[in-house]
Write a structure and sequence with these properties.
8 helices; about 290 residues; alpha+beta; two-stranded antiparallel ribbon; six-stranded mixed beta sheet; Archaeosine Trna-guanine Transglycosylase, Chain: A, domain 4; single chain
Length: about 290
């Protein structure tokens, strides 16, 4: 069990044990239906967004089927699939149940390959529990998120020299083909330099000269770290590229999005990490590193 919503693994486990004792004493009833997709078959588990004490009804407040539960906790690792799954549940999809805790079964069905066909449908709804979680509406507002922010950060892997351009403050926008997830707006993210060696052949003369000016010298290529987290930044907002000033350090083609970054903090020295192609993979911040 790891930190979640700013609560440490110890806090979460303490709350979970309290809830199990409540079930055993008959003071609480175990959930029998999923509050997200309405599934009643298979494993239905309690889910909390708030683990604060004193404990009460907010512990295990919602019942969720095993599939919805795992999608909630895997959402930072599989952002596109999370969005696709939420859309399907809003449309009324109810997928075949999973009878017991079996993560390989879940991952094989829902994290690899296309989303499986639903077992049946219910009436569509404009919003579900999954969307409320996505938008942060159930996250406790009076809880300091220090533990969550220090222990883990959602991360974005970029090829060099783009990652280091962000680290030195020369690249205020990361251009993408989609808008950023709403749940991450205003949050700190990690910028990871991928392991691929930069290729000068990919740069035109004007861009290369702009990079020399940004880095302050012409032999910058040899000094760029790779396979490491180089900085963190606040993801302020996402804007259509037509609404922001263009520079030489992004793809500002029509229809794309500019993710505005602010309060950039260089990680010195860069922390080695193995990145992932999936946006939003979780970087576990090493002890002693202040992101």
């Amino acid at each position: 069990m790891r930190s979640y919503n700013g609560f440490t693994a110890t806090e979460r486990m303490t709350a979970y044990r309290w809830l199990m004792a409540e079930y055993a004493a008959g003071r609480r009833m175990r959930p029998v239906a999923c509050d997200a997709c309405t599934q009643t078959a298979g494993l239905i588990e309690p889910h909390s967004e708030d683990y604060s004490s004193p404990f009460g009804p907010h512990i295990g407040q919602w019942g969720v089927c095993y599939t919805c539960h795992m999608m909630i906790h895997c959402r930072f690792k599989a952002l596109d699939r999370w969005d696709e799954y939420r859309s399907a549940v809003r449309a009324g999809a109810i997928f075949a149940p999973i009878a017991k805790r079996a993560f390989p079964v879940f991952a094989g069905r829902f994290l690899r390959g296309p989303l499986p066909m639903p077992e049946r449908y219910r009436e569509s709804v404009p919003e579900t529990l999954l969307d409320l979680i996505e938008h942060g509406e159930l996250r406790p507002t009076d809880h300091v998120l220090e533990a969550d922010m220090i222990e883990t950060l959602p991360a974005l892997s970029l090829w060099q020299p783009w990652a280091s351009l962000i680290a030195i403050g020369a690249k205020p926008f990361e251009t993408r083909g989609r808008c950023p997830p709403r749940r991450l707006i205003g949050r700190r993210i990690a910028i990871h330099a991928a392991g691929r060696k930069p290729r000068l052949a990919d740069l035109d003369g004007e861009t290369f000269e702009a990079m020399c000016e940004a880095f302050g010298y012409r032999r910058w290529l040899e000094a760029l770290p790779r396979g490491a987290v180089v900085c963190t930044a606040i993801l302020v907002e996402g804007l259509p590229v037509e609404r922001v000033p263009h520079d030489l350090f992004g793809d500002f083609s029509p229809g794309r999005w500019a993710w505005r970054l602010d309060d950039v903090r260089a990680v010195e020295p860069p922390v080695p990490a193995r990145g992932q192609q999936v946006w939003g993979w979780v970087w576990h911040v090493p002890e002693g590193v202040m992101p």
